[in-house]
Recover the amino acids of this structure.
């Protein structure tokens, strides 16, 4: 009997070692800024892990889950390092090495010009898009007085920059045999003559002539759907619209298709690129902390992605070709791979109220804007805050090269600020 018992234990231990080789199954180093990298590790839960940078141990811990992300910060910009992960639970100290170079920094020195428009009621701009430095569009609703000084209820719904001046515009579309000038919610420009807007339904134009696609009258959407607000696309043959009540639609240049989302939250932002695909985010701003990050597959099916542990509402998303993703809202959160099951890293070094929108030239040149007129810029090392002296909200931001344009409202007037970097 004792012999059998010992043999059983020996077999059990041998069986365990056959199936658990204490491997480092996966090790990836992703620069997420000029001063920080993300170290993604996959090994067995319970394994004792050591991480070295350039031969010096910087982390030692036991895996609490199979996939773990560790952030190594305080690095120097534009500097190459070698990281080595060692599984100390292996009798052979199995290890993997990776080399990576941190990003360079960019300048946060912007010079600002501000403009406001509106004579009565409540004027506001919701969206902005830069074609080039001499061709910029912003949209919303602006109420001016007429030539006699009386309030004109016929709103302007766009404003255009020609390199010198802003000119108020009325974008009129046909709706059931009538010409109307609807409030505009968002805008995307692919070129000077290839422009998409949202007025609750999609609007397309060349800067002069405009066509409205009334998706409800066309039978694409029905009474259970909400009006579309947010826009993103690769081009006019691959464009997405999101809005209230979980509404998402896609246009391929010929046909419109409703996308089933399984939610009634409002889609505030959509973003995509060739490497990472298309992702939309939804929430219930000012009402609850409910939130959703939704991947849109090539066949237009959808699947939810992790939001843990983002505590409150979200409103904007940007990611680069590598997969590093930033989400803004009540907090700024980052993840080295949007599809990873690892938790989001909630940044504590960004002082801001609620952020409504985010844009970027790259991971070292990120801008975001939100409540109380605040704008923040991440230069790869530091988050820099710009206060515009306004009490209103800034709803959208676009950056192209060294030009940044931000829109919203202040004191009942539509507000625009342009930041130029030398």
């Amino acid at each position: 009997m004792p012999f059998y018992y010992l043999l059983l234990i020996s077999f059990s231990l041998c069986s365990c070692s056959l199936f658990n080789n204490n491997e480092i199954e996966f090790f990836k180093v992703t620069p997420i800024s000029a001063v920080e990298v993300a170290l993604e590790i996959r090994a067995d839960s319970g394994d004792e892990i050591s991480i070295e940078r350039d031969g010096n141990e910087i982390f030692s811990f036991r895996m609490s889950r199979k996939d773990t992300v560790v952030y190594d910060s305080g690095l120097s910009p534009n500097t190459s390092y070698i990281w080595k992960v060692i599984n100390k639970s292996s009798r052979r100290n199995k290890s993997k090495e990776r080399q990576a170079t941190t990003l360079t920094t960019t300048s946060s020195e912007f010079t600002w010009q501000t403009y406001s428009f509106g004579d009565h009621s409540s004027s506001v701009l919701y969206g902005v898009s830069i074609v080039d430095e001499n061709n910029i569009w912003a949209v919303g609703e602006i109420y001016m007085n007429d030539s006699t000084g009386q309030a004109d209820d016929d709103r302007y719904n766009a404003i255009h920059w020609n390199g010198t001046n802003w000119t108020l515009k009325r974008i009129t579309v046909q709706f059931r045999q009538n010409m109307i000038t609807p409030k505009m919610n968002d805008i995307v420009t692919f070129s000077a003559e290839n422009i998409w807007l949202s007025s609750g339904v999609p609007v397309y134009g060349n800067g002069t002539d405009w066509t409205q696609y009334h998706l409800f009258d066309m039978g694409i959407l029905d009474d259970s759907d909400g009006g579309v607000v947010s826009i993103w696309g690769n081009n006019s043959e691959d464009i997405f619209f999101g809005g209230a009540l979980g509404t998402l639609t896609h246009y391929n240049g010929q046909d419109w298709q409703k996308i089933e989302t399984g939610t009634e939250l409002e889609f505030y932002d959509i973003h995509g690129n060739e490497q990472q695909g298309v992702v939309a985010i939804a929430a219930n701003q000012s009402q609850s902390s409910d939130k959703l990050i939704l991947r849109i597959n090539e066949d237009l099916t959808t699947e939810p992605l992790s939001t843990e542990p983002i505590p409150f509402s979200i409103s904007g998303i940007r990611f680069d070709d590598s997969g590093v993703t930033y989400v803004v809202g009540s907090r700024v959160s980052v993840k080295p791979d949007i599809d990873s099951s690892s938790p989001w890293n909630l940044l504590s070094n960004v002082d801001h109220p609620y952020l409504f929108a985010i844009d970027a030239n790259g991971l070292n040149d990120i801008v975001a804007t939100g409540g109380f007129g605040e704008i923040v810029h991440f230069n790869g090392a530091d988050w820099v805050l710009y206060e515009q002296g306004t009490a209103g909200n800034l709803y959208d931001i676009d950056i192209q090269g060294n030009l940044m344009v931000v829109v919203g409202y202040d004191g009942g007037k539509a507000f625009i600020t342009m930041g130029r970097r030398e």
In short: The longest helix spans residues 2-19. The two ends are 84 Å apart (CA to CA).
